[in-house]
Amino acid sequence: MKHHTIVGGGGTRLRVVETGNPHGQSVLFIHGFSQCSLCWSRQLDSDLADDYRLVAMDMRGHGGSDRPRDGYDDTRLWADDVSSVIRELDLHRPVVCGWSYGPVVTLDYVRHYGDDELGGIHFVAGITKLGSDAAISVLSPKFLGLVPGFFSSDVDESVRSLDGLLRMCFAREPAKHDLYAMLGYNAWVPPNVRQGLFSRVVNNDDLLPTIRTPVLITHGADDAIVNPDVVAQHRSLVRHADVYMMAGAGHAPFWDDAASFNQRLAAFCDEVAQQSGGTSKSARLTVPA
Known about the structure:
Layout (H helix, E strand, L loop, with lengths): L1 E6 L5 E8 L5 E5 L10 H4 L3 H4 L1 E5 L17 H14 L6 E5 L2 H12 L6 E5 L4 E2 L2 H4 L4 H10 L4 H15 L6 H12 L3 H8 L3 E2 L11 E6 L9 H8 L4 E5 L6 H4 L1 H18 L14
Parallel strand pairs: 3-4, 3-5, 5-6, 6-9, 9-10
Antiparallel strand pairs: 1-2, 2-4, 7-8
Helix pairs in contact: 3-4, 6-7, 7-8
């Protein structure tokens, strides 16, 4: 595993990890709210690394990246973060794989840089807008009930809310040691950062019909946080997108059923590579229907 420090928007230092085949199709993973690159361990430590160049960034305010006091409402800063990682690591037409909040950041990049330099976009249990009734309508009432605790400076209240968030992410509760590790890196994110992310008012849906690069939309059928109905909304705006609904998976399908998720991601990467003149690496994989 290689570790990089990339200077992103406004001089914010971003922690980025890299593994896998340096000559393979590159994949840039962008985690969700209050998470970090460690959430992708079942991808980074999998057979995907045999064939693909796997890169995962800690978003500003998260994990090992800098935690600026403000600027979380600036779409340009988010775009510059992604652009800096792509540019500094020389990622050739990467597949950008964003989870939950990650697609918002992916689309921030598209707004300012377009999608010409991307090989593909993968929305995973994703949202595309914030700060409106329409944005709230796709989030579950139980999740929304936890939100005030995310901003609390009271340690007990904050940890209770984060623990509730994590338990809602999975169709099957992870092992205790995994759950405690996740709680640790979620709690590492300061409350003001969480509030900064949720205070954004942004609607990136206007960008969806403009996307020309291949798109894959993956969603757990048992997602308890983001209503699976959002898939139909996104699919109506990105008509060429492929949709992969994962039965028995929740908000974190890449964890609940990592084997199936990885197989479908590999197939998508191969489709992207073939369109770019490369060769398929996953013909040996059995991809779920």
